[in-house]
Amino acid sequence: MRFPPTVFKALGHPTRLAILGWLKDPGSFPPQDRPAEEVGVCLKHIQARAEVSQSTASQFMATLQRADLVTCTRIGQWSHYQRDEDEIARVSALIGTSL
After folding, report:
1. What pLDDT, on the 0 to 100 scale, is given for residue 95?
2. Among residues 29, 79, 25, which one has the least CA distance to residue 54?
3. What's the pLDDT at 2?
4. Where is each HTH arsR-type domain found (predicted)?
5. Which of 22, 40, 52, 91 could form a disulfide with 80 if both were Cys (CB 3.0 to 4.6 A apart)?
6. Planar angle of CA 60, 64, 65, nearest 5 degrees
7. What distance in Å separates the CA atoms of residue 50 and residue 98, rounded to the nearest whole number?
8. Mean pLDDT to the nearest integer, 57-73
9. Which domain holds residue 54?
10. Computed from CA positions of residues 78, 54, 29, 94, in that sequence, does the dihedral angle turn out positive or negative?
11. Please, what is the angle between helix 14-22 and helix 43-50, to 10°?
12. Residues 1-50: tens digit of each pLDDT
C-alpha cells in the first residue's frame, strides 16, 4: 500500500499532528451552533487551540485535507473539519501506530 507524499508531509508537523489528535474528541472544543460531532469543528476553534493565526490554521487544515486526513464542511462563511477515520485507519496500519 502506497500513500502520496502529502500524507507524510501532513503528519510531519507537530501542530498538524496535534490537530488530528484533538479532532478525535470534537466535544472537547467550545460549543457551536451545530454539534461538532455532526458537522466538524469550526476552524476558529482549531485556530484558538493551536494558538496560531487564522491564515496559519487554514494552511494547516488545507494540508491535512489534501492528504485526505480530514474533510471540510462549509456552513455559511465557516469551515468545519472532521477526521476521515477510514483514511486515518489505513495510514495507521501502514505506519504501525494509531493517529
Report:
1. 79
2. 79
3. 64
4. 1-99
5. 40
6. 115
7. 21
8. 97
9. 5-95
10. positive
11. 130
12. 566 778 888 999 999 999 999 999 999 999 998 888 889 999 999 999 99
Which whole-number Å values give the CA distances from 52 to 3, 48, 89, in the listed order? 28, 7, 28
- pLDDT of amino acid 3: 66
Residue position matching grid coordinates 487544515: 61
Q: What is the Cα–Cα distance from 26 to 35, expressed in whole angstroms?
A: 9
Residue type, 86: D
Q: Which domain CATH number covers 76?
A: 1.10.10.10
Please tell me the distance from the alpha carbon of residue 2 to that of residue 15, in angstroms, as a whole number.
24
Q: In the 8-state DSSP scheme, what is residue 76?
A: T
Helix (H), strand (E) at residue 79: strand 78-83
Q: Are strands 70-75 and 78-83 parallel, antiparallel or unpaired?
A: antiparallel
Grid cell in block for residue 84: 476521515
* Tally of domains within the chain: 1
